[in-house]
Design a protein that fits this description.
single chain, mainly alpha, 2 domains, 65% helix, extended
Length: 238
């Protein structure tokens, strides 16, 4: 019943005269990093670099999963049906409250929007983090070293999710951390500028010394005085 109601809301959102998709706000306003939101938006738009999309672009002949070789590798398959994704979801259930398995179903192109419409903000954020990590697991097997594990990914998400939760509850903590990073970067820039100041000044002075007047060369020395003298001489000839 809940799923049917969510599907109706998604269909109503799709039919807006201005073409807007109100339910996409659940993605862009989610309490997750921007890179996770971008990933979720691409997942919702079926824009990830999956085998199915490569097949549609005629880059490959078949769109089947390179790991199991049985099913088409769509975005839904990678983050929900893949054995790694399923194992990650079951591992996360030990600490996180997630929707029942029946709610993780392929209801068409809007399946992600339907799923997010069924849950609250906290659960929705966890789902996006889980899908983002499931995509990483798949890519690590195919394109990476294959060293990422389900248990390690679950522990990473526990810690990552807790850090995000603390940052949301205590914005000052997050601001302090950002300020420390900013101060550190400024100190490093100042240090590099001081170390290279002598060399940079020499380069600037030498460049100012190279003034052309009938292809002549102004020798090093007091460059600014030579340059000023050259400009005055040029004005007299105008």
């Amino acid at each position: 019943m809940q799923i049917d109601q969510a599907e109706n809301r998604v269909e109503g959102s799709s039919a807006n005269p201005d073409g807007s998709r109100m339910l996409f706000k659940k993605i862009w306003s989610a309490a997750v990093p921007q890179k996770v939101r971008v990933f979720a938006w691409r997942l919702a738009k079926e824009g990830l670099a999956t085998q199915v999309n490569r097949q549609h672009r005629r880059l490959i002949r078949f769109g089947t999963c390179e790991i199991c070789g049985m099913e088409d590798e769509s975005g839904f398959y990678v983050v929900v049906r893949c054995t790694k994704a399923y194992a990650l979801r079951q591992e996360l259930r030990k600490e996180w409250i997630l929707p029942e398995e029946e709610q993780f179903r392929d209801g068409g192109k809007d399946w992600l929007l339907i799923l997010l419409d069924l849950v609250g903000e906290n659960t929705g954020a966890r789902i996006l983090l889980m899908f983002w990590r499931a995509w990483h697991l798949q890519n690590d097997i195919i394109h990476g070293k294959g060293t990422s594990t389900v248990i390690g990914s679950a522990r990473f998400l526990y810690s990552y999710g807790e850090s995000l939760h603390i940052a949301m509850k205590n914005p000052q903590t997050n601001n302090d951390a950002k300020e420390k990073v900013k101060i550190y970067k400024e100190e490093m820039v100042d240090r590099r500028n001081k170390e290279g100041s002598g060399r940079k000044v020499t380069q600037v002075q030498e460049s100012l010394c190279v003034m052309k007047r009938d292809r002549s060369y102004l020798p090093p020395g007091d460059c600014y005085e030579n340059a000023a003298r050259w400009r005055r001489q040029k004005q007299k000839h105008v």
